[in-house]
Write a structure and sequence with these properties.
The chain is of the alpha+beta class and about 550 residues long.
Amino acid sequence: MKTTFCKNCQSHTRIYSDFGSQYEFVYYCVDCNDEVSFNYKFCILCAGKGTRNNDVDGLHKALLPLENKPVISYLIDKLDPKVEVVIAVGYKSEQIKTYLDEVYSNRKITYVDVDNYDGVGSGPGLSLLSCKEELQEPFIFTSVDTIVKEDSVFNFVGDNWLGVSEVPVENSMDYCLVKGSKYLDTLYYGTGNRAYIGMAGVYDYKDFWNALEDRKIMKDEYQVIHGFDGLKDIRLIDFTWYDTGNNKSYIDTKKVFSNDIVANKSDEAIFIHEDKVIKYFNNSEKVQKRKNRTEYLSDMCPEISLVNENMYSYKYISGDLLSTVTDETLMKKFLDNCQSKLWSNSKTYDSFYDDCKEMYETKTKQRLTKLFDSELDKVKFINGVEVKPIEVMLDKIDWSGIYSKSVPTLFHGDLQPENVIYDDKKNSFVLIDWRQSFGDSIEYGDVYYDLSKIYHAMLINGQTIMKNMFNFTRIGTSVTLDFYAKSNLILFMNIFKQFCQDSNYSWQNVELLGILHYLNICTLYDNFKGGKYGNFLFLYGKYLLTKFLNKENNNG
């Protein structure tokens, strides 16, 4: 029998156990027969660099997004709010600290800085040992890249246990493997089908620490498994395990956690947590510029606060995305709103022409360079239309004609229906996810940049993409594109075109620049949907640009 503190008896007493499920024992006090819960701490190891996974540039592995939620939150959110969390940090520690302090301000979190998180002798064993002073009681520890489906085991720690999961034998060399049925016989490296997942519960913590302090280096790293040498009767718990520790496993895990609300780019990520939205950018300059730009958006955007140099946050805004409403009067009202608060505010400045050239011509060609003469670019027919290599097509665009029509106004910069929230209670619109600048300017940009952004998002809707309602098939040098178009946005497109004509905006310019947006952003989605979406955008952009140029030639 074990001994622990019974809150009902208010004294230390003996307890007996009853196997309640495959995941946990239920413990009862022998004196009062009341169920006994255990005080424990939860330790997350995330000091290392995580070089095996670089899905989002510059983002720490603890914050890699799954369904717009960082992986570390999948661990913390399983815990009772009263459980203290101890986190071993090292590499990019400020990212982790500031993010967690922003979203878990009401939870007690203790950070332990690990000095050696990358050299010889570093590793999970050193990270955990660094937390020893904070873990002088039963505790659960886990690697941050371990996600499990089950949560009942996080209720308390009443014995020593080890988390395990089946793995394909062909991949087993990548893991520490387990022998044993209900209880651990041994841990080993080699081949097998049952792996230690990097998560364990430690009840006999003094024995564990004594064993772990007898440092053993394996493959230049200090491992946690040596702490288990000091424990007896280590129960094995089978988990449904999702690994995010390397690129392949992370991609596989994203296939399970596939209900993203917003698509993440290779250098950006968005997190949604209860009443907060947190945006991450690899480029810290973007963060500061976006904050500065709120001054010019005429009270149409939310108030934001800096989390750190790479993140800002704002309060989650309730309402309907403009892309989901069906009332055509709201579309008209939105356009009139933008006209009065943004586009009617015009001011010429010296570098405007250069900014236009940078945003339209230079940026597009730079981003598409890596696709020149690519296999995708060698497609000759798209939906039955003959297409030329993209480099040839870009040379046929009348760039000076674009610049001659440009008008400097206040601008949003990514004005698409998914970035417009309608609050029916206040009968007002809130703009989110604005662009940080137009070229070098944070105050003024080309009105056609906003108008063309609206155009391109009317055709390819974000919600359609998130639901995988797009596809392309290739047979030889021919491609067939297929996607779902929302009926309300088809109606809104007609309203939008009429608005442009009534306001003396060149529909030809709106259309051309809208098409160029597809080509401009296609390389930003290399990691989204396995690259499928980026390839689709490239092909669709070529298709539309071909039709546009053919129409211009016929009219000329």
